[in-house]
Design a protein that fits this description.
Family: Belongs to the insect chemoreceptor superfamily. Gustatory receptor (GR) family.
Distance between the termini: 87 Å
Pfam families: 7tm_7
Keywords: Cell membrane, Membrane, Receptor, Transducer, Transmembrane, Transmembrane helix
Shape: globular
Protein name: Gustatory receptor
Number of helices: 13
Helix content: over 70%
Strand order of the largest sheet: 1-2
Order of helices and strands: HHHHHHHHHHHHEEH
Structural class: mainly alpha
Strand content: under 5%
Organism: Drosophila rhopaloa
């Protein structure tokens, strides 16, 4: 896959995002106004469907379960409102960040540029196909679950699957620029590996040879080239950190709302799956498959956001390791390496957080799983308590009072 094919994949995904109203139009004048009206129409459509679903919700269940079950609808409303707000208002800031990333990429040689765009194109195509196929399966299962009744399945997909597709595309808008930043750090790592290999003296020279130290000094820092390379990397890494923080600050509220919405939805779906297996009704197997798909989707969203940022941290750790393995033959090179190491360690010590609340690291998965299990156990206890009370009521109804 060459750079033109990569650009084609990105344009296809961008057009899909624009169609679903979660990405800026990229144009000015009448085209931007038409796109803004389309985004507002989608927002009104999703909000109207979600409000209607909350009002018409009449499933018999305890109040706490009803509240948790219906929390997904206001969550979807707020998340989609956030995405469309940024698509309509913050067009220039999104384009500025993207331009800075591509400017950093163009600073490398042609082979490295082609390699980075090739990997990015493969990643874009993979995520685009995965999201399209997954949500297509969800739509198909929803249609089968409603016995191919057109209007019923249309309303259900409008309330559930349309917001789900828009939110998944919103996540991709964050993940793909971060992937480009990771590729830039990966290219730095390759440059350091090449520098480390160049620092090896000629094989026929040994440490006892008089020519060893002079040859070693030339290889390690010929004319200050290594020092200049390290300083350039440090400057680029600083820009990458700044762009990453800009993306996190832009999507921070979206991440926080998404974590809460997905966690509550996973709790409810797990409890409903438990209830199904406790008293299975095999005629509702299609609904059970739908619940498993929903569990996969919400769980994947939480993991996906955390793992994307984890890749950035891994590349920084690799850079630190390679910098520590470099040979130092001049005080100037030592100062440059120490400054770079200090910058990397400072960025690693300060965790990336969504609105200063949720740490964007896979180490946070333990906390999410703990909260999830606490909620599910709480719901199971409520369900068991309700069944016990119902059993007592039924027994007392058979008493004969004299």
């Amino acid at each position: 896959m060459n750079s033109s094919c990569s650009q084609r994949c990105q344009n296809i995904l961008l057009n899909i995002n624009r169609f679903f109203g979660v990405s800026p139009s990229g144009r000015s004048g009448i085209h931007r106004w038409i796109h803004s009206l389309w985004c507002l129409f989608l927002l009104s459509y999703v909000w109207a469907g979600s409000i209607w679903k909350c009002v018409e919700f009449n499933l018999e269940m305890p109040t706490i379960e009803r509240v948790l079950y219906t929390m997904e609808f206001p969550g979807n409303m707020s998340l989609i409102g956030f995405l469309i707000f940024h698509a309509v208002v913050n067009c220039s800031s999104a384009q500025k960040a993207e331009l800075q990333i591509h400017r950093l990429i163009r600073g490398h040689d042609s082979k490295a540029i082609c390699d980075m765009y090739k990997k990015h194109g493969q990643r874009t195509l993979h995520l685009m196909v995965l999201a399209t196929v997954f949500h297509g399966v969800c739509v198909l299962v929803d249609i089968v679950n409603h016995d191919f009744m057109f209007w019923t399945s249309w309303l259900s997909n409008s309330v559930f699957n349309l917001p789900a597709i828009m939110l998944s595309l919103g996540l991709l808008q964050y993940a793909l620029p971060v992937h480009l930043l990771r590729l830039l750090l990966e290219q730095m790592r390759k440059c350091l590996e090449e520098l480390k290999l160049r620092q090896r003296p000629v094989l026929e020279l040994t440490k006892l040879d008089a020519r060893y130290e002079s040859a070693f000094a030339v290889l390690v820092d010929a004319g200050g080239g290594s020092t200049q390379l390290i300083d350039e990397m440090r400057s680029k890494c600083n820009i990458i950190d700044m762009l990453h923080k800009q993306l996190i600050s832009k999507f921070g509220i979206f991440f926080l709302l998404n974590f809460v919405n997905s966690l509550v939805s996973v709790c409810m779906e797990m409890y409903l799956v438990f209830s199904f297996f406790e008293n299975p009704v095999w005629e509702e197997t299609t609904l059970l498959i739908y619940r498993f798909l929903w569990l996969t989707m919400h769980g994947s969203r939480i993991w996906f956001i955390l793992s994307v940022n984890e890749q950035i941290l891994e590349e920084k750790c690799n850079l630190c390791q390679l910098l520590n393995e470099l040979e130092i033959c001049s005080s100037q090179l030592q100062v440059s390496i120490n400054r770079f190491l200090l910058q990397l360690e400072t960025s690693l010590v300060q965790p990336l957080e969504a609105c200063g609340i949720v740490t964007l690291d896979t180490l946070s998965l333990g906390g999410f799983i703990g909260v999830l299990m606490a909620f599910v156990i709480f719901l199971i206890q409520i369900g068991l308590g309700n069944k016990s009370l119902m059993g007592v009521a039924l027994n007392r109804s058979s008493w004969v009072f004299v």
